[in-house]
Amino acid sequence: MAQSERYGYAVSRLRAMESRFVEAPILQRMLESEDLSGALKVLGETSYAQWMADGGDGRFDQIVEAELRFVLQETHRFVPDVELVDLYRIPYDFHNVKVILKSAFRKASGGSRRWELLTPLGTVDSGDLITAIESEDYRMLPFGLGGVVPDCLALWEQSGDLLEIERRIDGQLFKTLRSLAAKSSHAGIVSWIAARIDAENVRNLGRLKRFNSDIARVTSFLHKGGHIAIDQLLSIYSEPFEFWIRALTFTDLGPTLGMLSSKDSDLEAILVDMERALDDYITSVIHRYRYDPFAPENILRYLWMKEMETKNVRIVLVGKSNGADRNLLRGLLRHV
Predict the structure, then answer these.
(1) What angle do CA 221, 227, 232 make, to 5 degrees?
(2) What is the domain count for the chain?
(3) Where would I find the H helices in the chain?
(4) How does pLDDT run across 271-312, given as a tens digit for each residue?
(5) In this structure, are 192 and 171 located in the same domain?
(6) Cα distances (Å, whole numbers) of residue 336 to 132, 163, 305
(7) Are residues 282 and 216 in the same domain?
(8) Cα 292 from Cα 271, distance rounded (Å)
(9) CATH code (residue 12)
(10) Domain span at 99
(11) CA–CA separation, 29 vs 248, rounded Å?
């Protein structure tokens, strides 16, 4: 990858593109709107306006996806190394593989495919992924998936264990991201990937605790390469959630997770709050490079912040369409 000095122009372009961000007052006005129509009217004052004619009132995913896709295309035009943009996009490829596999399982059970869940935000055309999997030409699959996908198909035939299938695909995802980040030689990029692994590990810990899974199964769902040691996470699994916060206080995750309330005994509510806190944690790791005019980490920072913004926009629009309480929605918003 390029030396940091080559990124001065790219970072300057990204600074200019920050004008596309939905600022806090706009989001606040969307929250305060009486209904969905009012929220969409406010959103129409932003860069999202150009996508709203095609998205309609109810197809929020199309609106936010169109904005992200535009930003990715623009960023591709001027970054010295498009591998950095691809590093952000690769998780969408793995998402698409999951969608294709689940569609195959549904079809085998007499159901229908869910191609509408595919996203164009990945690095590989989803049609090519479909062709490779349905034709069983796994050599066409990128990122080591050629070995993982047939194993997942065999596992489905044997046990139908969808969680284990997702675990294997996620394991290959993080293996791929770690390898690409290591090649970049930029500490911030490696740290950002490690933070994403931390977040996924803590999410898995919470999800499996909800199902009262045994410790052996939990161990297999924790991925290597995070800032927080797997042994440390395993040591808190059997403890109440309020102990999790204390135990992780002195880790990189501590400051963000510490803002959660430990008084709520509803595990479902805790997991929802945790999702927000984990996204904010990933943001905090990459956001520290904001004021370095030559840091390539700013490429990932901008794209990640844009993703968090689109997540906030979708939360508000979906909430308004369902008549959700605005204070509840405010508590779900990620920090941008």
Answers:
(1) 60
(2) 3
(3) 8-17, 24-32, 36-43, 49-55, 60-78, 82-108, 126-134, 145-158, 162-184, 187-210, 215-220, 230-236, 241-247, 254-257, 267-287, 297-321, 326-332
(4) 788 889 899 999 999 999 999 999 999 999 999 999 999 999
(5) no
(6) 38, 31, 6
(7) yes
(8) 34
(9) 1.10.132.50
(10) 82-186
(11) 36
Claim to verify: residue 221 and residue 205 sit in the same structural domain: yes
Q: Say how far residue 173 (Cα) sits from the centre of its chain.
A: 12
251 Cβ neighbours under 8 A, 6+ residues apart: 227, 228, 232
Instruction: Based on the fold, state whether residues 122 and 172 are members of the same structural domain.
Output: yes
Cα separation, 113 vs 23, whole angstroms: 38
Instruction: Look over the chain and give the mean of its residue pLDDT values, rounded to a whole number.
Output: 90
Q: Are residues 63 and 89 in the same domain?
A: no
Domain end point (choices 162, 186, 210): 186
Tell me the CATH number at 169.
Answer: 1.20.1690
The rounded distance, in Å, linking the Cα atoms of 86 and 93 is 10
Q: Which amino acid is at 18?
A: E
What is the torsional sign of CA 98, 99, 103, 109?
positive
* Gap between the Cα atoms of 189 and 80, Å rounded: 15
Both 70 and 89 in one domain: the answer is: no
Asked if 225 contacts 194 with a C-beta cutoff of 8 angstroms, the reply is: yes
Q: Which of 128, 157, 186 is the endpoint of a domain?
A: 186
> pLDDT tens-digit profile of 238-253?
888 778 878 888 888 8
What backbone torsions phi and psi does residue 63 show, to the nearest 5 degrees? -65, -50
- pTM of the complete model beyond 0.90: yes
Helix (H, G, I), strand (E, B) or coil at 116: helix
Q: Which residue has the higher pLDDT, 227 or 1?
A: 227
Q: Are residues 191 and 288 in the same domain?
A: yes
In the chain, the amino acid numbered 108 is A
Q: How far apart are CA 140 and CA 170, in angstroms?
A: 19
Q: What are phi and psi of 261, to 5 degrees?
A: -80, 130
Tokens of 62: 């199309």
